[in-house]
Design brief:
Layout: E1 8-13, H1 19-31, E2 35-40, H2 44-47, H3 50-57, H4 75-81, E3 85-91, H5 93-100, H6 107-114, E4 122-126, H7 130-134, H8 136-147, E5 151-152, E6 156-159, E7 165-169, H9 173-184, E8 193-198, E9 203-206, E10 209-211, H10 218-229, E11 233-238, E12 250-253, H11 257-267, E13 273-276, E14 283-285, E15 306-308, H12 312-317, H13 320-323, E16 328-335, H14 339-350, E17 354-359, H15 360-363, E18 368-375, E19 378-386, H16 387-406
Parallel strand pairs: 1-2, 1-3, 3-4, 4-5, 8-11, 8-13, 11-12, 13-16, 16-17
Antiparallel strand pairs: 6-7, 9-10, 14-15, 17-18, 18-19
Bound molecules: cytidine-5'-triphosphate.
Length: 410
C-alpha cells in the first residue's frame, strides 16, 4: 500500500535502545511510498550507525549542523522546509526536555525549533524506562509539548530492554506507521462516535459445532480503521475473526448474533453513526445442546430446529435516536447477483439512509472489493480498490451525508 506516497518525512533519532526499531520503521516508511531523510543525534549514533540508516533510507544521513554538504551551511533550515512531517522516533526523555525549553545545541533540536510550525507538524514517539516515563517531570513535559502543538504518540507497555516491565517503551514500527498514516488523513468525523459491526457471527449447535459464514471481517475492520483515522471515536463489535484491532479502536468481541445485538445496543446511545458491516447469521439453532451431539447409529441426522436472529441494523435504524437524526445508520448488502436492485430494496426494507452493496462471493476473504452506494438520490459506484482505500472513500461519503443529515433546517 502506498499510503505515504508523495510524503517527505524527516525521521529524527535520539539516543535509546529503541533505535533498532527505527531502522525497521524507516524501511516501512519507504515501503509505504514516503521519502525519508534521517537526522540523528550524536547519542543515537551510539546505538545504530548512520551507515545502516543511509542504506535503509537511500539518502545520506545528517548528524551535524556543521555539515559541509549544504551549500548555505544551513542544514537545519533546508531539512525542515522540505518535510511534510518530522517524526522523532525514538524520542528520549532528555530530547523532550530539550524541545520543551527551545534549546538548539545540535542539528536535530535546532531543526525542530526552526521548523515552520504551521506547515511542518512534529510527532514524537517517546521511548524510555518506565520510571523515566512516569516521572512527573516527563509527564509535565508531555503535557506542555502537546500544548505547544506537538503530537506526542502513545508509548507501548510490557517488557523493557532494562529488564523492567511497564509503560514507556517505543511503539512497534507497524504501530508508528499506522499512526503516521492516520495523522495525514483528513479529520472529517472529528467529534463523532462511530459504531461498527464486523465479521461473521457463530451460532452454536453444540459445544464443538456451529453455523457461520465466510465473512473475513476485513471490510468492517477497514471501515473502523478509516473512521478512527478520520478523527472519530470508534467502537468495533467484532464477530469471531483473527484480525488485529485497528489502532485507537475500542473492540468488543462477540460470537452470536444475540451477543452482537446486545453489544451494539449497549454502545448505541452514545454513537452518532452506526455502520453494520457484519454478516450476521439470519438463523440460529433453536437449542444449543449442552453436550456434543453424538451419532446414535441409526444413520438419521439429528433434527435441528431454527429460529430467526434479531436484525441488529433494523433494531437500531428504527430506534428513536435514528428517527430523530441523532444516529445515522448505514447498512451493507452482500449479494450474489442483481446488486442494484437488491441493494435498493434492502435500503427501503431496513429503513436506512445509506446502503452499501457488494458482491459477496467476490469479496469474502479478499483484500480488495468494489462497492455500490445506494441512497435516496440514487446509486454511486466505488471502483475496485483495496478495502482500506474503499473504506476511506466510504467514510468521506458518510461524512458529507452526516453533515447534511444533522444540519439544522434553514
Ligand atoms: N444485518 C443485521 N442483523 C441481521 C441481519 C443483517 O444487522 N440479523 C445487517 C447486516 O450487517 C447488513 C444488512 O443488515 O448491514 C444486510 O444484511 P443481509 O444479511 O445482506 O440482508 P438480509 O436482511 O438478511 O436479507 P437477505 O438475507 O434476504 O439477503
Amino acid at each position: 500500500m502506498n499510503d505515504l506516497a508523495g510524503k517527505h518525512i524527516v525521521l529524527g533519532m535520539t539516543g535509546g535502545i529503541a533505535c533498532y526499531k527505527a531502522a525497521d520503521l524507516c524501511r516501512a516508511l519507504v515501503k509505504a511510498g514516503a521519502t525519508v531523510q534521517v537526522v540523528m543525534t550524536e547519542a543515537a549514533t551510539q546505538f545504530i550507525t548512520p551507515v545502516t540508516m543511509q542504506a535503509l533510507s537511500n539518502r545520506p544521513v545528517y548528524t551535524s549542523q556543521w555539515d559541509q554538504r549544504e551549500a548555505n551551511s544551513m542544514a537545519h533550515i533546508n531539512l525542515s522546509r522540505q518535510a511534510h512531517a518530522i517524526l522523532i522516533a525514538p524520542c528520549s526523555a532528555d530530547f523532550m526536555a530539550k524541545l520543551l525549553h527551545g534549546r538548539a545545541d545540535d542539528l536535530l533540536s535546532l531543526m525542530c525549533l526552526a521548523r515552520p510550525m504551521e506547515s511542518v507538524p512534529l510527532l514524537l514517539a517517546p521511548a524510555m524506562n518506565r520510571e523515566m516515563w512516569a516521572h512527573p517531570a516527563t509527564q509535565r513535559n508531555v503535557e506542555q509539548l502537546r500544548a505547544d502543538g506537538c503530537t506526542v504518540l502513545d508509548v507501548g507497555s510490557g517488557e523493557q530492554a532494562c529488564g523492567e516491565t511497564g509503560d514507556g517503551r517505543m511503539l512497534e514500527s507497524h504501530e508508528l506507521l499506522e499512526d503516521l498514516i492516520a495523522f495525514f488523513q483528513p479529520k472529517r468525523l472529528r467529534g463523532q462516535h462511530v459504531l461498527v459491526t464486523a465479521g461473521p457471527t457463530y451460532e452454536a449447535i453444540d459445544p464443538v459445532r456451529g453455523i457461520t459464514n465466510l465473512s473475513s471481517g476485513k471490510m468492517g475492520f477497514a471501515v473502523a480503521r478509516a473512521a478512527h483515522e478520520a478523527g472519530a471515536q470508534v467502537t468495533l463489535v467484532a464477530g469471531p475473526v483473527a484480525l488485529a484491532t485497528p489502532r485507537g479502536v475500542r473492540r468488543v468481541d462477540v460470537k452470536s448474533a444475540q451477543e452482537m445485538l446486545q453489544a451494539s445496543v449497549e454502545s448505541a446511545p452514545s454513537a452518532s453513526i452506526f455502520i453494520a458491516a457484519a454478516a450476521v447469521a439470519d438463523w440460529r439453532p433453536q437449542q444449543s445442546a449442552a453436550q456434543k451431539i453424538k451419532k446414535d447409529g441409526s444413520g438419521q441426522p439429528p433434527e435441528l430446529g431454527f429460529v430467526e436472529n434479531p436484525d441488529i441494523l433494523a433494531t437500531l435504524a428504527q430506534s428513536p435516536r435514528a428517527a430523530s437524526g441523532a444516529l445515522y445508520c448505514v447498512g451493507f448488502a452482500a449479494e450474489s447477483h442483481d446488486l442494484l436492485e437488491h441493494a435498493t430494496a434492502k435500503r427501503i426494507k431496513k429503513r436506512v439512509p445509506l446502503l452499501v452493496g457488494n458482491i459477496g462471493p467476490a469479496t469474502f476473504g479478499q483484500d480488495d472489493n468494489a462497492l455500490l452506494l445506494v441512497d435516496a438520490a440514487g446509486a454511486q459506484e466505488l471502483a475496485r480498490n483495496t478495502k482500506i482505500a474503499l473504506a476511506r472513500q466510504l467514510i468521506a461519503e458518510i461524512a458529507t451525508r452526516v453533515t447534511i443529515h444533522t444540519a439544522p433546517a434553514p
